[in-house]
Design brief:
Blueprint: H1 2-25, H2 31-61, H3 73-79
Helix pairs in contact: 1-2
């Protein structure tokens, strides 16, 4: 499934760049610009979603290091009025 998402990621980003270029180079009053802009936005959204899925998978399998997170458990005790 990860390979399928990776392939989808590549296709989505290539569609984003291709249709984005077509949207920018089309005449301003034509329907081609609107269609290309919608397809570029769709490609960008799918590309971002696929990228985040790949990052999540890499973190859960141990391939990538999980991001540093602050230990915020002490804030709940301080909020309730207890001192540590």
């Amino acid at each position: 499934m990860t390979k399928l998402i990776a392939i989808l990621n590549v296709i989505a980003w290539s569609g984003f760049w291709a249709f984005g270029y077509l949207a920018l180079s089309a005449d301003g009053s034509s329907g081609q610009m609107t269609t290309a802009a919608i397809l570029a936005a769709l490609g960008g959204a799918i590309g971002i979603w696929a990228y985040f899925q790949l990052v999540r998978h890499a973190e859960t399998t141990g391939y990538a290091k999980k991001p540093n997170r602050a230990d915020r458990s002490h804030l709940e005790d301080e909020f309730q009025g207890e001192n540590v």
